[in-house]
Every structure is written in C-alpha cells, then in structure tokens.
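Quick start: read one record
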Amino acid sequence: MELEIRDIPEHIAYTAEYDVDSYDDFFDPATGENRLQDLEDYMHEDNPDVIVPEIPNDYNYFTHPAGVVPSGRMHVRYFDMVDRFGKDDPEGSYRFVAVPAVRAAVIPWEGPNPTVPEGIAHAFALVKEAGMQPAGDTRVSAIHGPWDREDEKEYLVEIQIPVK
C-alpha cells in the first residue's frame, strides 16, 4: 500500500463532537438508524439553504488528535463539507467552521470499522518511512460502510494525515 500525497482545499463544514467506542456507533444496520444523517437533517431544519454536496463531491470525515492512534473509547470530531456558512445550533450540537487547506498523505483502508485504528497506525508508519512528519489532526473519511455494503470486510475509509 502506497501513500498518495493530496492537496485538500479549504472548505466550510459543520462540525460536531462525539465520544464513541467505534465508528460502528454511528450506524445501526438492524434499524437503519444513522446518527450522522440525523445530524444533517437537524442542521437542515435551521439551515434549509445550506447545501451538502452529493456523491461524488461530498466530503465528510472524523478527526483524531495529531499523531494519536485511537484506542478504546474515542473522542472524535465529525466534519461535513457544505457550500456556505449557516447558523450554529443554539443548543451546541453543531457549529459551522472554515477548515484550512492541507497537504495530506492518504491511504485507503478496507475492513471492519474496529480495524481503523490499525490503519491509522499503518499510515503513520508509512509517513515516517517516507521522511515526512504529521502536521495536523488525522482525518478518517468513509467511502463505503453499512449504508451501502452488507459485508463489513468491504467497508472502505480513506485515512488522511496532514504532513509537512
């Protein structure tokens, strides 16, 4: 698996914070409950004019603190790119932010969600091997998951490590 270096442009996003045991906490395949879709729907109640791009132009991700491989219960921030700033939730469940451009080392990681920390550790090793240093919070962007794959072995995320 090789690193791809990608320039990720500045963007606007709404963001929310969660404490979870795994990325599996966001989607219940048995009921179809999707906490992130619920958050987007809630954001749209107060911001009907804010547009979340559709696939393939959507970009959403979780962040972990720079240089940290998550283990056990995780505190994550979720970001979902939008076309403009909206009104922050007065109850504090989400807010809008400008996210600066970054250059990132990117690798795909396939498999069940609980293996994502292993993928992050692998990405850090590849970054170090390439003579680069992490320069910001690690991003995990889901491509395929329980919403479009029955077999968790087919789940796919992109691990993005800002580098210098």
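The mean pLDDT is 93.
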